[in-house]
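*** Query protein ***
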Amino acid sequence: MIAQEIITDYEKLCHSVTDLIAASGYKIEYVYTKMGLTRLGFYKKRKTATFKPAELQKLFTIIDNGSLEDKLLGKIMNKARGTGTLSEKETRNLFKNK
């Protein structure tokens, strides 16, 4: 069900705020100040993963420095190394036979 997938993705985003900020290179203090939150308020939202959609949008507006997606994709690719991916030779053979 698509609604359940959306909710699951939203929850994953809420739980990933700390990692996303770290990947952006910004300091947490800078982010919560720009969001208009107190340190304690931001901490509670991070720990309980209770960010509202508007707060997540504001967060991404603050931390998206143009290279955030590239950094995250790089991390995903590094984690995927050696986990069932095709070698260059296997890839070439796959496309040769078509």
